[in-house]
Amino acid sequence: MTNRLYYTEPYRTAFDATVVAVDLVEGRTHVTLDQTAFYPTSGGQPFDTGTLGGAAVSDVLDREDGTIAHVVSGSPRVGEIVRGAIDWARRFDHMQQHTGQHVLSAAFDRLFGVRTESFHMGTASATVDLAREVSAQEVTKAEDQANRIVWEDRPVAIRFATPEEAANMPLRKESIRTGPLRLIDVEGFDLSACGGTHVSRTGGIGVIAIGGSEKFRGGSRVEFLCGGRALNRFRLWRDSLAATQKCLSVAPEEMALAVERMQGESKSQQRTLRGFQEKLAIHEARALIAKAVPSGDQVVVVDALEGWDAQGLKAIAVAAVAERPNVIVVLFSATTPALVVIARGSAATTDAGALLRGLVARFGGKGGGKPDLAQGGGLSATTSELVAEAKRLIAT
User: Fold this and answer.
1) Which domains, ranges and CATH numbers included, belong to the chain?
2) Per-residue pLDDT tens over the stretch 185-210
3) What is the reported pTM?
4) pLDDT tens-place string over residues 103-143
5) Is the separation of the CB atoms in 38 and 68 below 8 Å?
6) What CA–CA distances, in Å, run from 33 to 50, 300, 377?
7) How far apart are CA 214 and CA 130, in angstroms?
8) Which of 59, 72, 171, 298 is buried most deeply by CB count within 10 Å?
């Protein structure tokens, strides 16, 4: 059993310990100490990093037997006394997020009776999964109450109790652990069983900012950021907002309307452009039909066109088969990888879908379609190779 110093001293950043075991597991050195201040991954909170005997600690594992394994780059000797140093920036960040989660979960529970099902701390933000869906108004109210608790700078105490003692305490969530329980007590607001590291007063959280919420497995997943993470997100949004404001040349409060106006103008321009494309597609189709090559009972058009997207190529192909019922049209884009659209008239015999599958089998890519119309993309070949293969497949 490893003595866990972080249980009672979460602000401790250095310690001395004796190496009791060194094991090589899947090519990694696992060091077991008699005591440690390194927090192992558990309860939704990632492990601490730092150094042990001068060697970098890349992972910390909580074993089932109660010992903690430190994955290190070096290989100390059993019996050696080593000095451990915790990466304080990472530790304090985790303390802010984890304590913030306790306060935020308690706010949802107290205000709306919504329980937290799980908690996950990522590298940039953290999430709680709630038992039911919550509205935007409920999210805002919970965020407001959580921050009131933060700014009141309430004490956050570490307590220990037996399961029997805990049964008579107002725990937010019943613990299923056996043996002595470690409790985190946010004075007058939340009492929860937890083995993580926490700040000593709620003011240390700084601020709790909710980044958003979404439906998740019948409930809600709420993203939040505390302290330094919230500041970093604010700076990111501030800089992005300033850059966008500069591009739009409007005041911040007018940006949404400016974007809506631009979207409307863009859609109008796209409709106008599509109209011109359709007219040009008919002209292009007639020019291609004039160059069609007879092949049995049908005529064949195979070409690569510059400046056309998939929708434009399709418009040309459809216009061509409308002009001449016995034509099979294969049009490639002049890009790499290439797009392809295949269409056949009502009197043509080549299967467009089968032809596409043949091209994909030879040049890669993907796509699909029916006997009279198929399209795809991602064909990796030169224009001449594509055209030659299409003609060969049609002829066979």
Assistant:
1) 3-86 (2.40.30.130), 92-235 (3.30.980.10), 277-395 (3.10.310.40)
2) 999 999 999 999 999 999 999 999 99
3) 0.71
4) 999 999 999 999 999 999 999 999 999 999 999 999 999 99
5) yes
6) 15, 78, 58
7) 10
8) 72
